[in-house]
Amino acid sequence: MISQALVQSGSRRLRPLQSVEATRRALERSPLYSEELGIDLAQRTDSAYFRWFLASLLFGARISETIAKNTYRSFVQHGLTSPRKILDAGWDFLVYPVMREGGYVRYDGRKSTQVLRDCEMLIADYGGSLVRLHDAARDARELEERLAAFYGVGPVTANIFLREMRPFWAKADPALLPLVRKLAKRISIDLDRYPRKSLMFARIEAGLIRRRHELARESARRDA
Which among 68, 89, 109, 222 could disulfide-bond with 59, CB atoms 3.0 to 4.6 Å apart, if both were Cys? Predict the structure, then answer.
């Protein structure tokens, strides 16, 4: 009886450890948000970088991730994947049909204005090239400052864009969101074991953000 009780006790201790390990492995395989949208940042091209910049502008508003993704796909469906093409399309076309088809209704006019103004600035200041923007920055801090100079781009949007650029841009290294650190700690994931500029680190970060509600519930069940 004593031996059986010890086995059962050991089994209960192993289950949480196995659960943490399974969660860690799943996070290491998480797709980037850019990958989910069909954007291959590993190509290291201005075209891919701009498409992710556009998606980041859409994610940066107070709307659901689903609406942001659907609206980005609407831009792609209409062939609006470069700053020049977006400017040629104009405000009215962005509001309807592009924004409306994606469900981006509440902020459609304001976001259309932002996208157009940011495309204008990217062309005027950097010849339409985000690579030039990166190269013009002296360090990570100045890179964030240059992004923040775009109309409507605040810390949230800059962080969305830069955290997936970490493995591909030398100067991209935004601060971790407090939410990410807190959640990683709650589920016993040691972020310091991963190089911050690695693709795996970016995957874990994306996975933590994507699954933040689910992981919080899992952690609460284990703590109960």
Answer: 68
> Could you tell me the pTM of the whole model?
0.89
> In angstroms, what CA-CA distances link 68 with 37, 101, 187, 200?
10, 11, 28, 24
How does pLDDT run across 112-131, given as a tens digit for each residue?
999 999 999 999 999 999 99
Backbone φ and ψ for 104, nearest 5 degrees, come out as: -85, 70
Interaxial angle between packed helices 212-223 and 199-210, expressed in degrees from 0 to 180 and rounded to the nearest 10: 80
Look at residue 13 in the predicted model and tell me its pLDDT: 45
For the chain, the maximum distance between any two Cα atoms, rounded to a whole number of angstroms, is 79
